[in-house]
Known about the structure:
The structure is a single chain. The protein is of the alpha/beta class and 773 residues long. The strands form seven sheets. Strands 16-15-14-5-2-1-18-17 form an eight-stranded parallel beta sheet. A hairpin with a 3-residue loop joins β21 (698-703) and β22 (707-712). The radius of gyration is 27 Å and the shape is globular.
Amino acid sequence: MLPTATYRLQLQPDFPFAAAERAVPYLAGLGVSHLHLSPVLEAVPGSTHGYDVTDHRSVRAELGGEEGLRALAATARAHGLGLVVDLVPNHMAASPRHNHALRSVLREGPDSPYARWFDVDWRAGDGRLLLPVLPARLPEVRDRLRVSGGALHLDGQEFPLRAGTEGLPLDELLDAQWYRLAWWRLARTELNYRRFFTISELIGVRVEDPEVFAATHAKIVELVADGVVEGLRIDHPDGLADPQGYLEDLAAATGGRCWTVVEKILTGSETLPAAWPVAGTTGYDALRQLEGVLTDPVGVDELACVYREFTHSAADRGGDWEATARRAAYEVVTHDLAAETASLTRIAERICAADPALRDHAPWALRTAIRELLVRVPVYRTYRTGGEEVLTPAAARGAKAAFAVPEEATAVDLVRELALGSLGDGPEHRAFRARFAQTSSALRAKSVEDTAFYRYAPLLSANEVGGDAGHPAVSVDAFHAYCLRIARDWPAGGTVLSTHDTKRSADVRAAIAVLAQCPETWAALLAEVAGVPAPDPHLAWTAWQTAFGFGVPDADRLGPAILKSVREAGLRTSWTEPDPAYERAVAEFAAAGPGRIPLRTASAAAFALEPHIRAHALGAALAQLTMPGVPELYQNTEREYRALVDPDNRAPFSTGPEDDRTALVRAALRLRRERPEAFGPGGAYTPLAADGPAAAHCLAFARSGTVVTAVTRLSLRLAEAGGWQDTELVLPDGRWADVLDGVREFTGGPATELKLAELFADRPVALLARLDD
């Protein structure tokens, strides 16, 4: 059954299947059609997210096992709901103690039946799999190693021993294994297995291999066949060797019986590959449009000027988005992803050595060419088709500028051809093309999402996955064009406002976005709290803007989020090279300032912004619930929900007091279920244009001529300009009822113009349903 709306639940040992089952009646009453569950397969014990899968053969025991999942499905079905499950095909936990497949590889090496599961370069280094798991160099922890029961033990970790080696002296025993235990810091440069981004604790899985695919998907396919699971969310498809091939295999295995969406991050004007057999994306592209159309383009530029002045940032040192992102990409590709670029270089070297026409390219030249091309990939990665549009000749020319000698710059052309797959189709050629694309996606995610978004901070609401921090505003015309395209091409794809991965929930972003409408008020607020000294101005700006968005002082939640932001930025401290003195100063500032001072009520000017924050939040919520696509509600967001980056936003589901958001959600979801022809595939989307002096402040559209959504844009600017005045909106023909109050009725048609001052008299949004004649 195609979902009309989904509700995401974050499962964890403290919120297992039984707890989700108890929530079913409430969620069914809310109006969703499906529950979207975080990963359900066996994971590392105690995991609060489930993306560290350890065994694809079984449903996670800590959540209630398969019996608990089937019971949840039965209860959900009895209330008219289905289940959508988050599927993690790209990686597993690199934990030998819990990952049976990896344990076999460590014990038996390349001869293990599971060796084909993982991308291990056995020809790198000393021919063994590097395990960067030691807290210090081996000599410093050697005395803590213990051998017993056919395994090597260290501080709760367990590593299987190669047959016949248990009785050897310790040093000989260590050298005789198929793996090398190493200090965790060596992962950056010496790692010889594919991982998830830069997380060595998650090892990549080769689902492009038919046997691996079958083994890792048998349980999920069974659950789909049994009707327990009706939909799948595919986590991080960009990490796969061939996303399209994987999705084709998945569609064949499930017989096309389930709704499938992919966590694909689209950049700029990039579109989802048309050949992918899916319903669409999980919705980050919709989030970008929803946030952008409610963001003031003029104020964004003004706020950027205030930001540069406040932080003393020149355009080339954190005050310009493009420069910031490019610098972060260079840092990540040369530092965090050094092992990945080294792996690509080794593959390229082997290809060149085997082909007389390609010999005599120096390893350093190949490595430089790989780096220079990677940082110039403008999207997450290339796919089977369209690679030439991404790795363009212009990108190659830019990459060649890094070479002093033109003859050596020809390595760029070689690497580009290898990445595009136009120099051969042998195993090494295919490996290079896949690994280049996989590394490209890791680079984009790490440099943009996890670094540059924390370094460039004029308007933090724009710094979300899939967003454009340099150009956060979206025009009404562009929003309509996006919706028309989605209605035509991907009408059953997902839409979101908050997820388990958003750095700030929609309500936090709404408050921050309003600051673009009043840069001068924001500057004044910063001046008011200048008496709380901060370690540096960039931190002060980021922390206070985060606190303003959050709305209430809470040192226990704001402090960790602020500390995480400076570690991710990597300017003064980082996760791997922390500066204890600086981090103490950050913690002290967070506790004394953002964690203590109620900035939203610090002045009358700040308090006066509350109605405009509400207008943004309600407008985004209603537009998401009625635009083309299948809307997803993240747990707890049916009411005001203030959350920061994980783990703050992954707290368990809970019920709470209902508010005007809840009433809006219930009304919109009820309408979606009552009128599937208006919202489902085939449902038309028609932009509606207001007329009058404040026309630009109204975003309105009709769905199949039977539902009209109208929301207020930039309400603060609207109020400053004198309100709606005589601005009008022409409704489609017919009689219309406002489903948000159940009282008011309007008449549509070209001869009847509706005053927006009347439409928005009680609230900044309106949802109208056409009455039967």
